Amino acid sequence: QSLGSQAVQDICQRIEKAYQLFFKHNKKGVRPPGFKKVKKYKEWVAKKKNKVVVFIGQWYPSSKTCRECGQVLEKLDLSVREWRCPSCQSVNGRDENAAKNIQAVGASTVSLGDVRQASPAITA
Predict the structure, then answer these.
(1) Across the strands, what pairs with 57?
(2) Which residues partner with 55 through β-bridges?
(3) Contact between 3 and 38 (Cβ < 8 Å)
């Protein structure tokens, strides 16, 4: 399963704080801190906010899939931050493209259909 960088940072900060408190107040018979599984940690946060967390496959090619036509590149080096689709010629930013693909896969998984960002209204 893949986690966003913000979630990983949050978890690392919680671990750091727990161990600092443990060593600061270390008394005989006190066990080191235990941690919730990531899946459980996220599910209860989402439930509290009336949201749903959808996990997609770790190896889903979100960066290598063109969000316009669905063409999947065979290989894409991590150093490539932007690429042109060989099929439809659209230019895809690696991170934005991956985010939109993940959003679409997550939405289709929970039967929300196609989720797109609202376009600004055109004024006359």
Answers:
(1) none
(2) none
(3) yes
Strands (E), 32-95: 82-84, 91-93
From first to last of the 124 residues of the chain, give the pLDDT tens digit.
556 677 788 888 888 888 887 777 766 666 666 666 655 555 677 788 887 777 788 888 999 999 999 899 999 998 999 999 999 999 999 999 999 998 888 888 777 655 554 444 454 4
**CA-CA distance, 16 to 106, in Å (whole number)?**
31
- Six-digit token pair at 38? 């990531």
Residues in the chain: 124
Structure tokens at 9: 């940072």
The contacts of residue 103 (CB under 8 Å, 6+ apart) are: 115
Beta strands in the chain (DSSP E): 82-84, 91-93
Q: Where are the alpha helices (DSSP H) in 49-93?
A: none
22-32 as b/e, with b when 16 or more CB fall inside 10 Å? eeeeeeeeeee
Please provide the distance, in angstroms rounded to a whole number, between the alpha carbons at the two ends of the chain: 47
